[in-house]
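Section 4.2 – Deliverable D4.2 (structural model, holo form)

The reporting period included a commitment to supply a predicted holo structure for the target in complex with zinc ion. Inputs used:
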Amino acid sequence: MKLGKLKRSVARIILVLGLLSVSGIVASCAGTGNESPAQSVQVIRNVTVIDGTGGPAQKGVTVVIKDGLIDAVSVDAIYDTNAEVIDGTGMTVVPGLIDMHGHLFGRGATETLPQHETYAKLFLAGGVTTVFSPGSRDPDAVIEFRRRIEAGESVGPRIHLAGRYVDKGQSVVSWIDGFGDVAEAESYFEPYLGELSALKLYTGVDRDFGKKAVEYAHRNGLFVTGHIGAMTVHEAVEIGIDGLEHGLYTITELVGEAGYPAIICATANADVDSPEATRLIRMLRDNDVYITPTTVVHLAMKGDVSVYPYDWMRFLSEQGRAVWSDLKGTVLSLPSEVRDCFDRAFENHLRFVARAHRAGVRVLAGTDPIPPMVSPGLSLHLEINYLMAAGMSIEEAINAASLSAAEVLGVDRSFGSVEKGKVADLVVIDGNVLEDPMSLFNTYRVYKSGVAFDPSELRQSAEGGIR
Ligand SMILES: [Zn+2]
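Output (structure tokens):
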């Protein structure tokens, strides 16, 4: 298949359709009957589809992409004889994935650094067509980068963001500037309201501060997620928070407020079967508060990189490799009694996620790609596998990384599933994901608005790019 030619012709059509926004109105304005050259029709035939709704996978399906939209998903779809056809035998189609903890900065040698271009390519190569960044180091630069992507000057996923972290007073993170009070936060955020999808509350936010911040956000159409600490989960739910990041490691009622590294043993020793845990889980479910466990970032605390089954080193610059040896040094210098807690903490975290999922809590897939081995794109596939280790079926785990996340972002009318009429954000996997969920790593083709990207090309151009 001549991908270059295909890309150009589809790109032309996309220009005709106008810039695709993240606002969820794409399907209606894109469906207004533009003439479509024959090459604009792309077909994946005889493929297994996991459609993102959580429903059972279907085999032997033909997926038709036309003018940037999904035109058909059925066993007997009819398509133009001039269409570009991929024989999908032995392959799987999933929706464009959504990383709900998809930052665009990472850990640098001495501090965190923006990694926009490289991360964006890696996200896309991994089939991640949408990221939600819960907190930015430099919101203005991310907003400008998003504009570049939308204008076709850079390649990357659709970006939703929470902007500057909301913390109270002096944050535990040196570069986060906390706000003195919520009025100060409001005047800061006022000019950003049109750019943001959410606010992110950080560890120093207490109940009173949080309550006002949530009211402000909801009044302005933003959802609120939190990496909480000073506030309990009960309090966060009471004040109307919409999501909680990092799973058991930040469930203060069960693990306390311990910082790193004490949090590792606190998490190992938490009782996730206690009546308190049961009450908390019911509370999350009854109030539709989602959790994003970011399991793959917790692995980094162990310092054992063999748990990352992909070649993350190839994307690091020399400087980035220095970051890794520095991080490894930190982990290996932890007291042995702390390191001995790691595996139990990790298993406990997964048991908590499993209980929450079984009880009906919305669990979403997110990665938090700050440490160098949590590679954008690739680590989301690993997270999906861990969600399965926590009891999800493959269909449920894909749903957590697609339609369920799109619902939280408020874009599910146009995105998040492989369904007729939706924007053609989808991923062709070279492998049978039903039989081998690890084959998610083998992305063969990624479509964003029907524009085809070659993952191996993207990954090659991202080599050595992480600072
Ligand atoms: Zn984060």
